[in-house]
Amino acid sequence: MTENAYPRPICTIDVVLLTLGEDGLEVALMRRDAEPHAGAWSLPGGFVHADADRDCADAARRVLQAKAGIAISWLEQLATFSGPDRDPRGWSISVAYVALVPRETADGTPLAWHRCDSLPEMAFDHARIARTAVERVRAKASYSSLPAFLLPPTFTLAQLQAAYERLLGRPLDRASFRRRILEQDVLQATDAKAGGAHRPAQIYRMREKDLAFLDRPFCPA
Amino acid sequence: MTENAYPRPICTIDVVLLTLGEDGLEVALMRRDAEPHAGAWSLPGGFVHADADRDCADAARRVLQAKAGIAISWLEQLATFSGPDRDPRGWSISVAYVALVPRETADGTPLAWHRCDSLPEMAFDHARIARTAVERVRAKASYSSLPAFLLPPTFTLAQLQAAYERLLGRPLDRASFRRRILEQDVLQATDAKAGGAHRPAQIYRMREKDLAFLDRPFCPA
DNA sequence: TCAATAGTGTCTGTAAGACAATATACC
DNA sequence: GGTATATTGTCTTACAGACACTATTGA
């Protein structure tokens, strides 16, 4: 590796911020207010601030705080997209992140939420980035506790099962779901019960803050 | 996103080139011949060439061709590592890739191969990058056809099973392995048989060039 | 015929899916 | 008690793991 004789690429980060609506995943989009692609839909993103950001994930958190006013419960690096043509300003790199927020948090946000199965035209290669994120999240739903990060901090098993079902795109057996999830030891029963006009449900929270991997995944088929 | 008022980070790519030895995964390292960290072990890598590379993966392939003289059978983006301290020259980004080569290809290479379970001191954060790659490859072994990419284009079931076992770190039942792998329909029998002093084994090749995901993963435990 | 490895058949325990039965709340 | 949902129990089936058996080669 010799000293860099090459011009440095443009370096940005972009965030695919997702939440779960009635009809499946929704992504947060913004209208670009500057060129290039002014007026087009785009993912929240921006340049890395070398003086302030400790790394790219930190930049992603800063952008979410600035543009959506939220601190994120779950953030994961997705992939890095690069090439000479994706940004008209020149050879560029975008480090993309996926973030998940519960519906309630999403609704308190100035962002525009779009259903992921019918994305609008988007600036740069942002549509491709968003599709990659959706694939990743769906895949990860089958073998991890990821869907819990689309729910509020406490939830019932029925709510959790509904989140899995919407991500996996198929119904799950109630009894099997309960057995599998509970024996994974990722949930912790709280001392609260859900109200309502019927038998109240036990309310759970995640045992750990982090994503947990399931010993036995849900078959994606 | 406003016009970039910030200095652009240093942008490099690094490749964790892996092969499978008797005692498990081995990684290809080089001695750095320039500052910083001259003389230290490092991953093959380099700067992105904005005039020549179509994207970062292309840069990774170019580096492997130049430094190892090989065209790679499998290359996957691993993750991007970034921050102000990982490179003494300044705030930097490294897009890291994992590449797999069969033993025979590895041996025909000018690189130094080190066992992954006892890495030497390495330049930058390359040791961390290498560890992340090894984790990824081990995890992926349990639910995909990845181990086949550490073998020559054709192989016997016994060789494939041995590759899985070395990556998973535990023995697998011969009959179960055969059933599971064959019913996944990822292998294709050739018309050749392996020689040797015993009953010859059927020789297989991958049905597709790409990584295949298994319906039912091998339990990592 | 023996040694060594390849490939097949059978049994058993486990767990998932289906579904019925029971529990618990509010009305 | 009625209704709606939560939770538990039971049955059946599929399959992974264990392991024994058969097959095929060269020596």
Task: Considering the chains and any ligands shown, give keywords for the structure.
homodimer, alpha+beta, 5 helices, DNA-binding
Largest interface: A-B, 41 and 41 residues
Terminal residue distance of chain A: 46 Å
Oligomer: homodimer
Q: Report helical residue fraction of chain A.
A: 25-40%
Structural class of chain A: alpha+beta
Please compute the radius of gyration of chain A using only Cα atoms.
19 Å
Low-confidence stretches of chain A: none
Proportion of residues in β-strands of chain A: 25-35%
Which secondary structure elements does this structure contain, and how are they paired or packed?
The structure is a homodimer of 221-residue chains.
Chain A: E1 10-21, E2 24-31, E3 41-42, E4 45-47, H1 56-68, E5 74-83, E6 92-100, H2 103-107, E7 112-115, H3 126-141, E8 154-156, H4 157-168, H5 174-183, E9 187-193, E10 202-206
Parallel strand pairs in A: 1-6
Antiparallel strand pairs in A: 1-2, 1-4, 2-3, 2-7, 5-6, 8-10, 9-10
The first copy, chain A, binds a DNA duplex (27 and 27 nucleotides) through residues 156-158, 172-176, 178-180, 193-202, 216, 219.
In short:
With 221 residues, chain A is of the alpha+beta class. Chain A is 25% helix and 29% strand.
Task: Tell me about this structure.
The structure is a homodimer of 221-residue chains. Chain A has 5 helices and 10 strands, in the order ββββαββαβαβααββ. By secondary structure, chain A is an alpha+beta fold. In chain A, strands 1, 2, 3, 4, 5, 6 and 7 form a 7-stranded mixed β-sheet that branches. In chain A, a hairpin with an 8-residue loop joins strand 5 and strand 6. The model of chain A has no long low-confidence stretch (mean pLDDT 93). Chains A and B meet through strand 1, strand 4 and strand 5 of A and strand 1, strand 4 and strand 5 of B. Chain A binds a DNA duplex (27 and 27 nucleotides) through residues 156-158, 172-176, 178-180, 193-202, 216, 219.
